[in-house]
Amino acid sequence: MSRNPISIEVLETLDAIDRRGSFAKAAEELNKATSAISYAVQKLEEQLDIALFQRLGRRSVLTPAGRLILAEGRDILHTTRRLADKAKEVATGWEPRISIGIESLQSYTDFFQVINGFLLDFPTVEIDISECVLNGGWEALEQGRVDLLVGSPGPVPVQKGYRSVAIDRGELVPVIAAKHELAKQVLNKQYMDSVLRQLRRVVIHDTSFSGITRSEGLSSDGQMFYVQNMDQKIYAILAGIGIGNLPKKRIQGYLDEGTFVPLDIQQKDSSEAFLAWKINNKGKGLKAITDRLIAQQSDK
Question: Residues 27, 58: one domain?
Answer without folding.
Answer: yes
